[in-house]
Predict the 3D structure of the following.
Amino acid sequence: MTQNQGSAHESPRDAIDVSDVTCTFGRVRALDGLSMRVSTGTVVGIVGPNGAGKTTLIDVICGLVRPMSGTVRVLGQDVTSNAAALRARIGVLPQETALYDEVTPHQNLRFAAALYDVPNAEQRIAEVLELVGLSARAGDVVRGFSGGMQRRLAIARALLHNPPLLILDEPTVGVDVEARHQIWAHIRALRAGGRTVVLTTNYLDEAEALCDRVVILRSGKVIADDTPAALAARTGRCLELECREEGARQLAEALRSHRGVLRAEVVDFGLRVYLAAEVSPEDVVRDARQVVPVEGFRTRSPDLVEVFRALTAAGSAA
Amino acid sequence: MRVFRASAALEMAQLRSSRGFVALTALAAVSFLVMVCLFGLTGAYAPVALIDRDGSPHSRRFAEALLGAHHSFALKSISLAEAEAALGTGRLVGIITIPAGFGDSVSRGVTVPIDVRIDNVNVDLTNDVQRALPAAIVAFGRREQYPGVRVRMAEHDVLPHDTGYIPYLVVSALALDAMVIAGILGAMATAREWERRTVKLLRLSPAPSSAVLAGKLAVAGGVAAAALAVTVLMIVVGYGVVPVAPWTTAFALAACVAIFTCLGAWLGALLKRTLAAVPLLFGLAMPLYVDSGALEPTRFDGQAIWIIAHASPIYYAVGVLEWAFHGLRVTPESVFVDLAILAGIAVLSMGLTLGSLARGGAR
């Protein structure tokens, strides 16, 4: 590759440093004193319910929205004063893909190459099309492409100017399972290549599968920022008890006041109990058997969906 | 220049994929031309029967005077029976009858009544007869040197040449065409960025939006100019209306296309939807056209209409085009003032469009 934008600059330790940023639109406070950092060369997922502030955070990082207060540094530079220069070093996949669908992938990329002043444009276009597996469709009109192909083309466009920082806003929304896994493979390849990737997603399995760290937003605030494993550990262990439905309800009531039980949910096979890290599952099983017959049990780490629900439920309660 | 060229190439590719829409837009230009010509011709050839029951030299000379008077008739010499049948079935507007003994009576100094029967379905036709017959009677009397006609017109034209109504109309139609074609193509060029949501791509890129916009509008304006050239060709070849200053005309047309492309681009950026911008442009074009000196110089239409006309870009465009095509000055403002105001509208439109692109309308 003969690109320059990424390699010409010294890589700072943090690719993104957002500090105490507040952003309001009318009476809506989209970001509320938000701070986060993204280390260079990592993949960070931003998850949160709709309206949590994910897209606003991306717009702030890209310099499209100026925050009311706080500072944003991207690739070592202040976004507010260097927005135009920084745009040349950031690759963005917008949520809405934003492709010219009446023309071909090649024509889309030719235009993007001109916008970003990509040297040896034809060669680079061929490279990124090859990378996303669209070389054979380079001359077809984009309108006929599936959602997954359009997403891959948009990723190719984001990569075209070889940016050191990639921001992918919901990269797999609306695509089928196969295309989703293809996109995941591309993102993993980008991380292997040393690029910093920030992605927003509503799919927690995606964040768990791809991200070194996950930042959970709620109402414009960071409510958790850690590795997927650490977040799961923070939520505690998950104990699944097999028992009859009536027994499960009785048991849920009984365990609600048990020390170290964070939450209990009645499920189709019995009861799912979330335990604090310091509590022994065997102690809970023994106490449960004194209330109702328990036919079997198993323990496991919670997945990110369960972490997310636990954290956002806690946020709601607060 | 790199971004300008790439933007122009992309716009051209997009227009190629919308060939049907572009062709229909160009067709609208021709249809407007036909429409204003039909308007000009409407009522100009109302069939009226002239029944000469006298057949004397006097009656023939009166018929000649009637032909020479200003009116909108197509005079036909047919029998009374045919004329009455045609009048009854709506194929004739009126019947003018020169009575038997007309020649003898006028020779003797006796006043002769000319019988007129008219289909007064539209009072405009009645008014036309009421204007034409006295004019013909006066012309006849003057030619025959009858006593009593003591006033005659001494005409001194302001301009060295007359301009027919249709030649005047077709040139003003070019201003309407420029607004509709260039406006729609300019609006498409910008509104599509919001429809495809590619406006965010432009905002995210380090390239200046002005270069992207200039590239897109250059192509939109170029296609509009080509469509307008076809209309001009129709005017020159089909109607035989030749511009007195071809290069000035070409420049004036190019300026109008550029200005209306910018105006359309702003409307597209404002409304963010082609489907909203196109009907608005059509809807605005007609009243602005009528109140723009298109049918005659607006300053002759009353103070209120003339003042309102100053808000219409077509008013200034008609001023420039009539000057370039026919050498006419139809606005009290000089042609350079007209051009300056049009250029000001273009610059303002470009500024507003760039502002919209910068904001992106994401929220």
Notes: The interface with chain A takes residues 2-3, 5-7, 9-10, 13-14, 17-18, 196-198, 200-207, 212, 360, 362-363 of chain B (CB under 8 Å). Chain B has two domains: 2-39+161-359, 45-143.
